[in-house]
Amino acid sequence: MEEAMSADLTSRKVAYTSEARQPESFNPRFGPSTGVLHDNRKPELQQPVRVGVFLSGGPAPGGHNVISGLFDRLKEYHRDSVLIGFRGGLEGLFAKNYFEVTDDLLSVFRNSGGFDFLWSGRGKLTDDNIDICKQVVNELLLDGLVVVGGDGSNSVAAFLSEHFGKSLDCHCNVIGVPKTIDGDLMNEAIEVSFGFDTASRTYAELIGNLCTDCCSGQGVWHFIRVMGRTASHLTVEVALQTRPNLVYIGEEVEANNTSLRDIIKEIVEVVIERYKQGKEYGIIILSEGLIGFIAEIKVLLSEIQKILANNENEMDSDQLTENSKNLWFYLPEQIRVQLLSDREASGMVQVAKIATERLIMQLVMLEIRERNIPFNATHHYFGYEGRCAMPSNFDCNYCYNLGFTAATLIKMRRNGYIATVKHLENSPDMWTPCGVPFCRMMHMLDMANCTRVPQIIRQLVDLNGPIMKSSADSTVRAPPLNVGIAILSRQAPGMHNVIWGIFERVTEKGGKVFGFKCGTQGIVTKNYTILTAQDLLPFKNLGGADLLGRGREHVLLNHQARKQVLQNVSHLNLDALILIGSSLAMTEATYLAEYFEYKRAHCCVIGVPATASNNLTHELLETNIGFDTASKIYAGLVGNVLADAASMPKYWHFVRLMGKQASYEVLETALQTHPNVVIIAEEYGAAQKTIHDIVKDIADVVCKRAETNKHQSIM
Asked: Which domain of life is it from (predicted)?
């Protein structure tokens, strides 16, 4: 729960929730079911049922299907049953901000991501407002209240169930539903929280794209922080799916007492070793809560908090202990500023907001440059992209069954239970819906103010569990072509299928395909491989250009380079040279074709337009390879962020898309997602607008939306 209850209220909760209640199971069904569990303690409700529901905490894919399962089950019991949705989480309950859920309203949200049907919130339950909740549910004559949330929200649900259960004038039963993409709401009763499957797949796809991209370009190190709060479940799952070069798990760092300098040293050693192998690229994944697990960082944060508290928020580094002082000045200035500014009302540093990926990247960059080794790196944070993604088939089915289970528990007049589903490793028709008392999952936690509070505990990664066992990496063999192929520019989705098509056509005629490595460099230096079906097999229908690698230098505009290329293709007895790439690559192909024609060379030159920017235009050319895929990926990510913004209406998201000179990707993404503001470079350039004009246009939109109480958007 986000805020601790008073000692008086807490003691009452402990006395009540310690009652020995056992988990209950009933008839497993996929979708609506008539199977229920009967007992003699409380008779089932035979009349129409009135139930309220609200979403709490960060969004997670599948929340709308929880509401769908809940709604369908209630209507199955009695057509006059009513489902009340509270907008904005717990605050909606306090403010009586609700509406009746109907099939027409709900139909467009089924199987969709986000929490935008009801919105979400992070309300806090206190002694002052807990009676307001009872008053509202009594006024609405609710038989049940369903709370969809994580460990904190379900702890709130436990307190509400306790309070309602002890009140003689309240007949509302409270049921919780386990939700969090972080995966830390997991125990003997809960096999997995909903949203985790979708989020891990989303992040794995994005990181997999980066893996392919850096293997194709072979010149960038990517430092990636993955959302997950304190626990590293998402990081572990994503790493198992993508196989990066290095992964840092907070729990493992703490167990091994690894220092920040140890982490930097290990990364530097890996970078240098790969540099010696000619591999100036790689992927490093960091868990969101990593920095909070580093012992020396925890000591430093504790000392900073005390200094600021004693010095009226003024930092005095001389008051730090020697070790903490050395660490303080080891950190980049930008991170030191963030440690002093991003603090909670209590004075605690908001560790999750520290850009760990940027911190690690900057420290590694300083170490590498001192050794005069070329190092190009960039950083990413994957979080909001996964919270409101379209739910996976698993989460769609799982969430519907959770809602179905919650409705069944209310119909059975159970209070203080969390809806769960067992045997999720089986097909949905073999799942077993269950109800588990909150008290079986709650533990007493020692708070900073020396009080003890019952709370559902977040589960960290079990370092001794089977999931931490890694499997061996597979390797791809590159054995031995009349047609040569080279990729001259930045990779675009679909390039591998171009090579596949060429290979199929050439080899069916008995020819060979020569794949030149790293674009023009491979053509000039005669660095090639004769492609086989075995070579192509792992790359069919995959993005990137890592089968051959792409060129970085456009040397074919140089006469001497063209002369060398002619000698090489003549020596290899090539009939054709196919060049894949952007507008500049096609310009090179034109120069080379003209030179070959002038020299009456046997080899012809063919160009294939491939650029996600779609900036190679002609009346005979409808689109470029890669544009459709790239625009759909960007539209999907922007759509996820739009759903996130609508679910928790308090963020403005500024999104910059790749595209260099032409803005086709931006325009196509905007047409698919309809953001509030779109800045098209060509449009603003034609109007001769300045940076000041752009800022003013955005500010006008922000102010206009603020007038209608809309404090979220995307541009």
From this structure: Eukaryota
